[in-house]
Please model this.
Amino acid sequence: MTQFQLIKKSKKSCARLSLLKTSHGNIEGPFFMPIATRGAIKNLTPEEMKTLKSQIILSNTYHLMLRPGTKVIKKAKGLHKFMNWNGPILTDSGGFQAYSLGSAKRKTQNAKLNLNDQKFKSLLEKGDWGIFKKENPLNPPYRGDNNIKFSEEGIEFYSEVDGKKIFLSPEKAMEIQMILGSDIIMVLDQCIALPCDYKKTKQAMELTTRWAKRSQEYFSQKKEKDQKLFCIVQGGTYKRLRLQSAKDLAKIDFDGYAIGGLAVGEPRKKMLEVLDYTVSILPENKSRYLMGVGKPEEIIEAVKRGIDMFDCVIPTRNARHGTLYKFKMQNAKCKIKEEDFYEIIRITNAKFEFDLQPIDLNCSCYTCQNYSRAYLRHLFMTNESLGFRLATIHNLAFYLRLMEEIRKGIRDNNF
Ligand SMILES: [Zn+2]
Model:
């Protein structure tokens, strides 16, 4: 069975229509993966995700390995059964979170407290955040690398849950994702913060390539069921390094090629430039995935450059902050080809107090079919969790419709 099928290439851009086959269903590309960090889309059930026609979800290896841990998920016979989602799942390798969250130990040590410590908890209840330099330790925004060690073997870091030391090797990342039963498994990579000098970027990129080889070897020996392995192209914003990374990885047979280390604060122009030269040397008959992107207009620009897959926290996270998306329409059609094709609604704005229209009259989602802006605003003003749910449903409906419109555009030679 051919796992990836290129259905159509646009004549106007490098955009492509594709079909990725998995044992939990086929996925039409370009597609977007809503994020279920800890095995749950925040505020929604998997049944609701089905109603929204989400083709696939993304879950995080790092968070699942800490809680509930692989033993529980193994007993449940995999993540699909554990969370009651029978569609495809992609899991990341844990590399990015180990890098961004793995400094928990320094923080807990500094405070001479443990996250489960009673004294610590009562300080929190009193609202005393001073011990953590005004950072919220239950949702650590802290990023640092003093307690994360990258070696040839793997990554050593500290659990954000209890501060325990954890070691993640490329093989271990494979093993965990195989237990999770992910349809798409990502290799472990070394993430770097941008800007980063050439030498460090080169070292991280070369280590990522060596890890990718090790991952592929382990994966091909141990693979039991229909699972796919994707590698990650690194190299920061250095053309030479990106090309080297893509070339080296293309020599190894992966099911898909991700582009990592972008959308981490670099100017958008720079990101698109990297895509322009990187995508052109990736194998044509394999999936291409731009990790962590993005805003609607970034997705459109990346699709035009030949990307098939996206993931981002934006629709779900913004929903919880009352930031909602709405298409601008022209003759009852979304005008995604134009620059200002959507608008943002901040639902807590006073102007919506008496507004009894739905968020978007042209949206067929459950929220827009049943609830008004005024009611949604009221839910947000009173901090009712139903507000987060309804806003999440709408924002995901917007993103999934955006992808549908893009696919339609490619199919109709308009994109
Ligand atoms: Zn809606």
Observations:
- The radius of gyration is 22 Å.
- Residues 318-411 form one domain.
